[in-house]
User: Fold Molybdopterin molybdenumtransferase from Curtobacterium subtropicum.
Amino acid sequence: MRTIGQHRDEVAALLAPVLAERGAETVALDALADGVGTGRGYRVLAHGVTAPVPLPVFDNSQMDGFAVRSTEAGDVVRVVDPIPAGAVPVPLEPGTAAPIMTGARIPDGADAVVPVEATLPGAFPAALDLDVLAVPDGTTAGVFVRRVGSDVARGAGLARAGDPVTPALLGALASAGVGAVSVVRPVRVLVVSTGSELADGGARDDGGAQDDGGARDDGGARDDGLDGAGAVIRDANGVALRAALAEVGAEARGVRLSDAAEAFLPGLESAVGGWADLVLTTGGISAGAYEVVRQVLEPRGLVVTPVAMQPGGPQALGRVELAGRRVPVVAFPGNPVSALVSFEVFLRPVLAAAVGAPDRPTAELPAAESAESPVGKHQVRRGRVADGRVHFVGGPSSHLLGHLAAATHLVHVPLGTDTVAPGDPLTVWSLR
Ligand SMILES: Nc1nc2c(c(=O)[nH]1)N[C@H]1C(S)=C(S)[C@@H](COP(=O)(O)OP(=O)(O)OC[C@H]3O[C@@H](n4cnc5c(N)ncnc54)[C@H](O)[C@@H]3O)O[C@H]1N2
Ligand code: MOO
Assistant:
């Protein structure tokens, strides 16, 4: 059986070509800042950007104070008209000082700023009434002046291709007057929830693709079995994985397909079309009689490759012949915790790296309590960290989605460990 590292490497290798070939699109800074269609704003530049202007664009004052000539340190000079921010000042004549506000352009002739605190009365607007200013001894050229280009020189690289679009970069681009940038197109992922037990997608036996409708909210008595009287369940994986994908800047669509094998391929191919870079399925890959993903996609290129991990043991991947092309498919098990843990372990690291998003913060902390783990598998438990120790949240079973929702960390119990004792060091990944 594969290790998690081997499977993660295979997932990375499977995705590498589509991640590399996504192409670029030009997006306005405002759209990137607002995050419309960009997940949490995680995008990377397709091309480097050089500064069309220097930053700062002109010499300006770092302080509210007086623009002076440093050669006149020790002199008493006449105070002239003030320079507010946004005004182009007249040159500063010898023997004068001009009140100047933070960010205002330094007048030609001036080369230093005396902070208003160094004057009497020590603050504006009262200091506007000064007729003369004693330029302090020791005022040197450049003091409290923010020099043109001292942040970024004209023509210097602001960012390189592949750099993540961060708030600071957007701010720097805006400062330089760059209104739009060329960014790598988000990866497009079709999330396929499979199973005839899924409401609005599988309860019917027609197997057709369904729009991702989500839960109904009529709140009243129902005849669809969703109150527990029947055998259908709601699709947790579709919405959870789409949200997880959005967190790493991927564009996701959801579709639900039943276990009816003859309808699965047409439904899948019509949803894939020319759109999907990656198909991510859940369910239908283990040992049952109606494993539709396995039955339909194995002959077309999917490879079932169990991994020594719990939850998330059943796994499959491959380049699959779909809609006239070979599309990367990653297949996760259907149990909701298995699906989300699989995402965290196998897919998130690859997609996060592709958009410059950070990995989950990792720490090694002592266990607060004991636990058991299958010795031949890497177990991923759910937990919370309190007082610097790891507390397990719920048991190891892969249907405990409410417990995962309540957890703040994934807790790793490595291969070869059958017992965790209080105090044993455990690696945790922070989910929030
Ligand atoms: N005889 C064996 N049975 C099972 C094995 C095994 O090795 N031998 N492995 C078990 C493990 S571990 C897992 S995990 C599951 C994986 O099964 P599948 O990937 O084929 O998934 P399904 O059977 O379709 O579903 C499993 C479970 O998850 C629920 N489910 C599926 N999709 C969704 C969804 N979109 N939202 C919410 N819940 C979903 C489904 O109803 C099942 O309860 O197999 C074990 N069996
Ligand atoms: O591997 Mo399954 O994902 O434990 O429940």
Notes: Residues 201-221 have pLDDT under 50 and may be disordered. The first strand starts at residue 24 and ends at 28. The CA atoms of residues 149 and 302 lie 55 Å apart.
